[in-house]
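User: Study the fold:
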Amino acid sequence: MPVQSVPLASVTIGPQSWRDDTMHSIRLAEHLVRQTHAGRPGSISRARSCSATAFTRRRTDTIEEVGSGDTHDALCKNKLRPQNTGTMFPYATTTTFVVPFPPPCFREQCAEASVGVAREYMRSVREMEGEIRRQAGRVAHECVKLERERGLLERMLRSLRCEMLINKKSVEGRTTRPASTETGRDGADHLLECEKRELTELKQEMESTLRSTLAQLQTLGQCSRQLLDCASERARVLELLPHTGSGSLSTGGQGTPSQGLIKLPEPIGPFTPECKQVLESSTLAVNQSQLLRENIRQMIGNAIARQKAAHRTVNEALVKKIAETVTLKQNLTIMSAAARQAIFRKQRQLNCIRHSHDRALGPEYSGDILSREKLNRPIVKVYHRHPGTQLPEAAHLIQGSSVLRHCLLSSEEELSRLQGTCLQLVANLHGKRAAEQVDSAVIRLRRQLVDRRAMPTFLQQGLY
């Protein structure tokens, strides 16, 4: 029942000041009684229940200054985080009535609010720590992939060095050809020089890419260490939380980053600027590593194609040179045989001419001349008894001897030229045979010394 003042009598006897003082005291008491009636226990319990509901529904309420709120805020300031202090005063609500004093369970409510704030903060930190560890897992996985590409680069470099050694031995091997006819520069020598320049250029490109890969591996390693350090720093407040039952703590996940994490960094929040910087730098490093891996694969493929093309071109040129040498060697063999046959025929002819010349000259000793060959034989003497009976036998013998001498000299000269030509053909044939053997040895060397183990398996197909 509300308190109402009793109306005074219409007739006043006492003085006015006396009556005014009394009425003022009555109104003051009435006002105080009404204030006390507004803060009865039922209203306080309703305020407390409303505050608890607001605490469980919202996490970041604002503090309303009511009654002696400044004193309570100063009391709990060192226990709670500034961004969540609205939940530290459950007796202060958004209702229109004013609670003059905190409830008896104010200490328990402050402790419960502190635990709730700490729990929510730890959960947010655990989400961020899980995301950082997942990013560290992605960086580690990218390191493994880039390390595999580095191994392929090193194997490719070993293959290029082996090819350069083969090229050097091929050039040195071709210098052992006969110096008389086979040391002239040909297309195979030019192709060997082109192959050397191509291999040198590929080697320089591979070494440059390998240096970039090593630098990127160092960058990824540094990002991984920074991520793990940041995750360890975030995990300092997670000792009291369970390590199971939450997918946020998975360190090997390869999924996309969580979309529910805080995007705006806060210096004293779960997502600090340091975490943002580490995540962004690691993401950039992973993207750069992926691009570098794609470039490495393309570069290795192009290098293999160019290396195979140069190797195959030189081998084909050497094979063609060997085929040409074999063809020339066969022609030389045939021609040298024909030359030897001509020499033997000319030798027989020369022997016949020499024999005829010797017979035409007659014996050296006059006592060896037969009676039928003498110019003063009896039948000739009898024939010369008449005048004008001269026989041309002596002139014919002299003329025949001169012709035979000329034929003998020319035949000897032709035989000498045939013998010289035959010797030249034989020497050239020996040179061609030696050159064929040298080029064949170079081909065998190039095919035997190709180090297939230094080349990736999936790139060895179609080498020859």
Observations:
- The first helix runs from residue 16 to 38.
- The two ends are 111 Å apart (CA to CA).
- Residues 209 and 296 are 7 Å apart (CA to CA).
- Confidence is low (pLDDT under 50) at residues 43-97, 245-262.
